[in-house]
Amino acid sequence: MFGSRSQFSNWKEICIYVLLIALLVVGICFLQPLFIPAGVLLLIIVVWFARRAYTQKKQMLSDYLDDVIRNIERSVHYSTKNLDVGIAVFSSDGKLQWKNEKFQEWTGLKSLERKKPEEVLPVPENAFETMCVKDDCKVIQMRGRYYQMQYFSVQNPAKNTERKDDAASTLMVYLTDITEWEKLKQRFAEERMCLACVRFDNYEDVMKGLSESARANLNGEIGEILNKWVESLQGFVVRSNKENLVVGINYKNLQKAIEDKFSVLDKVREVRQENKLAPTISIGISKDGETLQEISLHASKALDLALGRGGDQVVVECDKQMQYFGGTNAVSAKSTRVRARIVAHTIREQMELADKVFVMGHANEDYDSIGSAVGIAKLSLSLQKPTFIVISNRSTSLQKLKKVVFNGELNISEEDKLYEGLFVHEEDVLEEISPNSLLMLVDHHRAVLSASQKVLEAIPQKRIIIDHHRRAEDIIQNTILKYMEPSSSSASELVTELTGYFNDKLEFTKGEATALYSGLVVDTKNFNVQTGARTFEAAALLRTSGADPILVRQLFKDDLESFRDRYRIIAEAETPLPHLAISINRDVENSSDTSILAAQAADALINVTGVSVGVVISACTDGNVNVSARSDGSVNVQVIMEELGGGGHQTVAGVQLQNADADEVKQQIIELTKKQLDEAEEKEKNESNLIE
């Protein structure tokens, strides 16, 4: 009724009526010619009245539409002026064309004429060109208040042209004050419950040999430190037993603890009674989860991760991201062997239940990976189980070990000769895998490092991990058992120790003992780093079993070319920071030889006076970048490598990066090392102040 189409329809009806009357008049006039003048007059009168009625109706419609438009204009004017919404219009060249009073009030600028969005609204991503690409809605902050900004572009056809390309884009911007809502959201986030699981790491070792009064004093002093810490965070603490506590705090106070870098770790470590061993605690904290039960589960997993990384540290899980604090001190060896005995019995039970046993180390196997695999194979063979040691592509270490130990200069037994056929590639064993097969993973716990991804995937449930590296976030899941001891020198040490509890009558052959001994030697740098009493006990057992140190020394001999390459890398090293030496070995093949060369060069760098951290970056021809990092113990290189996605130990760590730039990686390492050195220096100053 109110559109042009409706008007056309009414006029069409009138024309039909007039036509019918005209036909009727013509018919009458045809029959009676005397009525022609009267008929013409009648037709004129009808047309005149019809035209007049249509004109009046059209005028009424026009007046009605004028009233509607005026009312809409008044409503729009009132809305843009009085409603709590800021509105602005920017022209096709990005200049402000119009704004209401709220927009000017909220932006706080006296004169906005001809200004661009980026001159009025907070950057980034508020430039006219960016905002015109896609309609969007975002929250911005101006002058201490929060606004929801909605914007969209309107295409206006250009005048005097029909070309669509000439259309001009107008940007409409709407601001809504949501400060109270944002404050409510922030308050909700700050008051969100966080749970912390606290564990006294070395309770039994610390309490051993103490008198009852000293134990009570030690417990009381540590308890007082923890209570004061929780009180400062306005939280609560519940002690579940002598070694475990549960702490509840809100997210706001968790941020305070993070800013403080959890100094409670250092305070607990400084407690002394009659004991010589420093007490340490580990804390797992989480805010993730919809219920307290879920939050508690995440906190417990964070604590497991902290303990798996050696203890004396804090792991915080927020929004599925892990943050690490502490863990910069050397991991103390555990004196208790209870866990080793339980693990050995569990491994024996699982091997007896399995029909086949597959042993696998990490890719580009070193002597520790091979030696520990040989040790596990020994356990399996003693139970008469079909055993396979899965290896990656050609490993120089394995070839040397085979040549020197298993079919070379060592007077090996018939049993040792069997190992020549035990080392197999993935394509040779995939068909051998059955639903009841057991997979033993040694010297690693991350899927990306496994010698064979296909074998790992083919045995998805029955897996056991034996490793001495600090636990990473992306640990292999769905395992029967994870035996991880960061305090141990090597996987070979762990396997050697397990053998005595697996079967006290089991004896290593000379070849097996030499392979395990080589693993000890390579990871301890000839018993110079990461050694403890249990390391030397394992070495003594292997020597008693016939391990030959002379042959092991031959394994580590290099040819003249490798010797020259190693010292070329050392000669090209730079010292961008005090105590840091870093070198890049460019355009090399991505192989185990390259990794060994980098590790040897990094070891040599920390022997230079004044160098605490030695890093060698291998820029491979396939685009990968491999990093070997070494430390004299004053800096935790494992933390540095973790930031890049790798891992390791406090003194030995590394990372493998795909499609990376060596120079960019070098700069990252320099920045991360500087951070570690600054923290170590600050910690040393604080300890000096406490002593004074």
CATH architecture of the largest domain: Alpha-Beta Complex
Q: What is the assigned CATH homologous superfamily of the largest domain?
A: inorganic pyrophosphatase (n-terminal core)
| Mean of pLDDT | 83
Given helix and strand content, the structural type is alpha/beta
* Radius of gyration, whole Å: 40 Å
CATH class of the largest domain: Alpha Beta
State the end-to-end distance: 95 Å
Sequence of strands across the biggest β-sheet? 7-8-6-9-10-11
- What overall geometry do the principal axes of the alpha carbons give? elongated
Helix content estimate: 40-55%
**What's the number of domains?**
5
Beta percentage is 15-25%
The major pleated sheet works out as: 6 strands, mixed
Question: What is the oligomer described by this structure?
Answer: single chain
CATH topology of the largest domain: inorganic pyrophosphatase (n-terminal core)
Pfam family, one: GGDEF_GdpP
Coiled coil: 655-690
Domain GGDEF: 191-319
Binding site for Mn(2+) 1: 362, 366, 443
